[in-house]
Amino acid sequence: MGQDAGQWKDSLEYVTVTDIGRRRANNQDNFAVVLASDLDDWQQVGHMFLVADGMGAHAAGELASQLVAENLPHLYRKHSSDSAPEALYRALVETNDEVHRRGQANIEFNNMGTTVSALLLLPQGALVAQVGDSRVYRLRNKHLEQMTFDHSLVWEMRASGQLDDDHLLSDAIPKNVITRSIGPYSHVQPDFEGPFAVEKDDLFLICSDGLTGQISDGELAVILSSLPMRAAGSLLRNLVNVRGGQDNITLVVVKATADPVVTNRDEFEPIRIGANVGQAPVSVTVWVGLGIAMLGGLAALVFEQAILSGVLLVGTVLGAVGLALWRVKNRHRAVTIPQGQRMGKAPYAIADAEDLVGEVRAMIADVFRISKNGAAEGWHNTEGDGRRYISKATQHAKNGEGAEALEQLRRAVEFLNTEWNDSRGKGSSDSSIDL
């Protein structure tokens, strides 16, 4: 299992961010990045990126998400002789089995579970698997698309036509009630989306709901399309925290920059599902019955019981013909996903970054309000440097300089987050950003 990012530096960039937030005692999120070890490995299994958001008391959620982050990539590779969707499906089922088993074995871990959103970058394109309400987005030319369906009560009710934005219950139903997860039950039903052709400079975001609960899709589109990846990841983390940091925050940002990660449909075989599935098995009882009939017919012939022998032998022949016809009818046929066709119904939400200045103005106003509240609560220097960055951001926005305004806003938010941590005596060990 390869992890040498150096050989992919000309075709792939990624940043990972995880943070405990401000309200949680521990970080129940986990993530994994597993890159192909070489070009042959790339052709076989591609690159995998995933985020898992755990649920459960007594550190059970943390264990559940850790098991997914550790086991899913390994099990996916174990089934590499299958097609990528089949291998990933089997890996998800086996991972669910393990998390469920661990949950049943220890009363403190009972009903523990986790979401998982996984992205595979393959020669055929991007393939997404989803269980829960973490998300995968794709940003292309300032156009942000949510490529996963939230397995939440609100989304399920909307999809079934039971709820819309004007419904009386639309704001009353908790947004964090999820309908599918890894672990609590002995079975799991993942969704699959793709494969989507990957174009140069396509950017993918895999994240837990600790991010999307505090950051709108419009803000995501603006930040991801206007800042370098590392700066964008830092701003997203800090902005969630200055807005209250209600949950753990984890995100993986991935950018395709060149071949072979960029999809070239002339250089690969399409995905074939079921190519390794064997013929449907025939019951041993059927084989034994045919054998007995044939032997009985031959024995009857020896003892000059012509009628009985004929009945048994004709029955044997008819049974064999019927069995052959049944096997032909029920033989498995591999399904090929043609170019341009895919599984799933994505995108499920769309946002654009065209109104850069407008989005930045709204974020500046929000951060200014937070800064004022922070000063009232005794944060050290929000009236000084923090306000200076906000003023610069405001001036750039007035001049229509959206990218420059966003950079100053990033500095203001970073400063405010540091001030909050200092005022609470917190260090920086609760978060990490890796490139």
Side by side, the strands of the main sheet go 14-8-7-10-11-1-15
Number of H- or I-type helical stretches: 12
Count of strand segments:
15
Biggest pleated-sheet summary: 7 strands, antiparallel
Mean pLDDT: 87
Poorly predicted runs of 5 or more residues: none
What is the succession of H and E elements? EEHEHHEEEEEHEEHHHEEHHEEHHHE
Oligomeric status: single chain
Distance between the termini: 19 Å
| Beta-strand residue fraction | 15-25%
Globular, elongated, flat, extended or rod-shaped: what is the shape? elongated
Using the CA coordinates, give the radius of gyration. 28 Å
Q: Give the structural class.
A: alpha+beta
Indicate the percent of residues in helices.
40-55%
Describe the structure.
By secondary structure, the chain is of the alpha+beta class. It contains 12 helices and 15 strands. The strands form 3 sheets. It has a 7-stranded antiparallel beta sheet. Strands 2, 3, 4, 5, 6 and 9 form a 6-stranded antiparallel beta sheet that branches. The longest helix has 24 residues, at 306-329. It starts with 11 loop residues before the first strand and ends with a strand.
Please tag this protein with its features:
alpha+beta, six-stranded antiparallel β-sheet, 15 strands, 435 residues, seven-stranded antiparallel β-sheet, elongated
